[in-house]
Structure formats: C-alpha cells, structure tokens
Design goal:
Length: 191
Amino acid sequence: MTLTREQGWSLLCEWTRGEALRRHGRAVELVMRAAALRHGTGAADVERFGLAGLLHDADYESWPAEHPARIVAWLRERGESELAQAISAHYTKWGVPCETLLDKALLACDELTGFVGACARVRPDGLASLESKSVIKRLKDKGFAAKVERDEIARGVELLGVELAAHIDFVISAMRPHAEELGLGAAAPRP
C-alpha cells in the first residue's frame, strides 16, 4: 500500500466540504483501525483498514449519483485495488460481494458507526454512558435515524461473524476515546 493517511485525509477534505460527512469518515476510520486489531492480522492491517473507513464516502458529497465510482476509480488509478474493492462492497445493494475481511469489516462498521453516533447525539452525556442495549432499542424504532438501513447493519454483522450486541459494544468502545473530536461528547451541541 502506497497511499498514506495524510493523502487520504487531504482527498477527503478536498472532495467533502461538509463537517458532518468528514466526521463520519473519521469515525469509521477509528472503528476500522480497531477492527484491524480485533478481526485482522493486527498492526499490519491498521493503516489499510483505517484508510478504507476514512475514504469510503469521500465522493458522496460532490458526486452523490456516482458514489462510489469516483473514489473507487481514484484508488484503482493509484494501485489501491484492495481499498477500491472494499469501498465498492460497503453497501450490499450495489451487488458487489464482500470477499475479504476488509470488505466485511467495512460493511459491518460503516452504517453501525453512523447509527451509534446518532444515538450518542440525543444523550446528554454523548458516548460516555451509551450501551449496546440502548442502541438495540433504538434500532427497533424505525422512526429514529430513519435513513439508517438496519438491514445493512444486520448483513454486516452476519458476514463478519459477530453477535450484534458485542459488535455494538466494540464500535462504542472504539469511538468513546474520541468523543470530543467526533462531536459526541457531553458538551456537544444537540440537534
């Protein structure tokens, strides 16, 4: 892998002007870095997993109708075919099979990370005391964060071979130390 984290961040900032989508990319990066240690081969996977998380929606704001074609092409031009494949497969309705652990981890972490963030935003203390049981309760409420596709979360957990509550706890624990940076701390402004 030749792409650096700095190059990835620079591209994300160039293509994504909105703070919310940048924060989502950063949150998924953090969770994916933790996923590399838990599900991957360890430290050797951290940068690759992190970059997949950081860049998975990099083209969405500027070219929503073409997402993820722009970022996938950009990565392939630079010889980053593994990252391109994972990003191509991070939404099951695109019909690209999840073949590698990286593909499965990105699918399992992306939508759930966004949902955990939504759960934290409505709590007075943000991520500080959020637990999986609260997230599961909110998952059952189709009116809460209605745009989050619950079937994508279920499919990701299934493909990664983890239990839902345990995976939610994992995502929360990966995000919690970065709550302030992600706008999910106790003092974060609420919608």
